[in-house]
Structures are given as C-alpha cells and as structure tokens.
From TrEMBL, chain A:
Record-level Gene Ontology MF annotations: proton-transporting ATP synthase activity, rotational mechanism
CDD domains: F1-ATPase_epsilon
Name of this chain's protein: Mitochondrial ATP synthase epsilon chain domain-containing protein
PANTHER family named among the record's database cross-references: ATP SYNTHASE EPSILON CHAIN, MITOCHONDRIAL, ATP SYNTHASE SUBUNIT EPSILON, MITOCHONDRIAL
GO CC, one annotated term: proton-transporting ATP synthase complex
InterPro entries noted in UniProt: ATP_synth_F1_esu_mt, ATP_synth_F1_esu_sf_mt
Homology family: Belongs to the eukaryotic ATPase epsilon family.
Lineage, highest ranks first: Eukaryota, Fungi, Dikarya, Ascomycota, Pezizomycotina
GO biological process terms, semicolon-separated: proton motive force-driven mitochondrial ATP synthesis
Pfam family, one: ATP-synt_Eps
TrEMBL record, chain B:
Organism: Mollisia scopiformis (Conifer needle endophyte fungus)
Stretches assigned to the F1F0-ATP synthase subunit delta C-terminal domain: 122-162
Transmembrane region(s): none
Main subcellular localisation: mitochondrion
Protein name as annotated: ATP synthase subunit delta, mitochondrial
Length: 75, 165
C-alpha cells in the first residue's frame, strides 16, 4: 500500500503523532486542555566532546530538522 | 519403525477419547461466543480484557467486524470510528487516531492507539475550523513536510467530520 505521508519522507511515528495531535485539538475545550498536555515534549540533549558539554538542543527541534533534511534527500 | 509404533498407539487411544465428549457435553466445553477486548491508549485502558460481542474496526484494508473465533491477524488502523457491541446489546463508539488491532487465536482482540475518545467528547466547531486551516496549508506554498502534515490532518478531520454528522 502506498501512503502519501510515506512518499513525502515522514515516518510512521511522525504520522501517528500528527494524527493524535489533530484528534486532541478536535476535542471539546475542557477535555482538550487536559489532553493537549500529553502531546508536549520537552526533552533536551547535548553532545559531549573531550569532556565538555556541547550546545543543549531540543529533541523535537532536532528531529524536525533531521526530517526536513531526509525529505529533501529523497525527493 | 518407532514412529509407526506411536501411530498405532495413537489409533488405539483415540476411540475412547472421542467417545467421551460425544456422550455428555458439560458447560465447560461449550465454546464462548464472546471476544475479549483490550482497548489501550498510552495513558489509559478503555477496555481491559472485557467480554464483548463484536468490534467493528477501520482497518487500512477496509472496515471489518471482529467476532469470537476470528482468524488471527494484525491490522493497521486508519484514523476512524471503532464500534464496540457489548454483552448487554448496547454499542459504544470511539474515535481512534490510528494504531493497530491484533486478533489473537484465543478470541482475544487488542487494539492499540495513541488517542481515542468517545464521540460525544468532540466538538464539531473545532473540527471545522481546523479543517479549513489544514486545507489552506495543504494548497499553500509551505515546505513539503508542512504540506504532508496538513494532508494527514485533513484525512483525520474528514473522517472525524463524517462520523460526527
């Protein structure tokens, strides 16, 4: 089966998270506020080199950048 | 030679084994016509191995109804409506954001999804406003990734809109 999201370089994980995000945003306001908190991710990482901590980056931002780069390679 | 001997003993044993269940049929031997449903989200389990009559799921390969003694299979789910017909005869409807349904050999069905809510929890106004927003992005000149994401959103929202009507 050919999926449109696959053709544009998205992973299944990304597809699921986008679908879940839009479902959460479609809820009635009281439930939506509680549910949207589940979609937040504040994980950070840093690369250590020669015993020194490098720049601290957000995992979400780094993933998005990697995805756009991967998409530009495939197309 | 050895296998032949086993086959012969098996033949000898069988008549007695067949006779017993034919003569009397107890309650314990009656096959259950219920399917054990587990509907789990990462943060909540809606059904925990509960006996239900039938579950209708939106598989990528098409809509399917799962009853007891279904053929074991793994189905990827589209974002859509899951209908559970309970023992009491009533049915409950949940909108799932997509995941997997696994039919196990012993009349067990496990459905896993990221988000799933009862239909009455959705607001049609929120769906409509998001749909028009997503359509704008999909037909706009954003990055390829933004357009792909908007198309996913449209797929989900259109499915949601059609079941909310």
């Amino acid at each position: 089966m050919a999926f449109a999201w696959k053709a544009s370089g998205l992973t299944y994980n990304k597809y699921l998270s986008v679908a879940a995000r839009v479902v959460r945003r479609s809820l009635k306001d009281d439930k939506r506020l509680a549910a949207e908190r589940r979609g937040e991710m504040e994980l950070k990482f840093a690369k250590w080199n020669n015993g020194k901590q490098g720049e601290v980056k957000s995992v979400a931002d780094a993933n998005a950048a990697a995805a756009t780069e991967a998409a530009s390679h495939t197309s | 030679m050895n296998s032949l001997r086993i086959a012969r003993t098996a033949l000898r044993v069988r008549p007695a084994a067949i006779k017993a269940p034919l003569q009397r049929r107890g309650y314990a031997e009656a096959v259950s016509d219920k399917i054990k449903l587990s509907l789990a989200l990462p943060h909540q389990s809606i059904y925990k191995s509960q006996d239900v009559v039938q579950v209708n799921i939106p598989a990528e390969s098409g809509e399917m109804g799962v009853l007891a003694n279904h053929v074991p299979s793994i189905e990827q789910l589209k974002p859509g409506l899951v209908e559970v017909i309970e023992e009491s005869g009533g049915s409950k409807q949940f909108f799932l954001s997509g995941g997997f349904a696994i039919v196990q050999p012993n009349s067990e069905l496990s459905i896993n999804a990221v988000e799933g809510f009862a239909l009455e929890d959705f607001s049609i106004e929120n769906v409509r406003s998001q749909l028009s927003e997503a359509q704008k992005i999909a037909s706009g000149s954003g990055s390829e990734q933004d357009i792909a994401e908007a198309k996913i959103e449209i797929e989900v929202l259109e499915s949601l809109q059609s079941v909310l009507k």
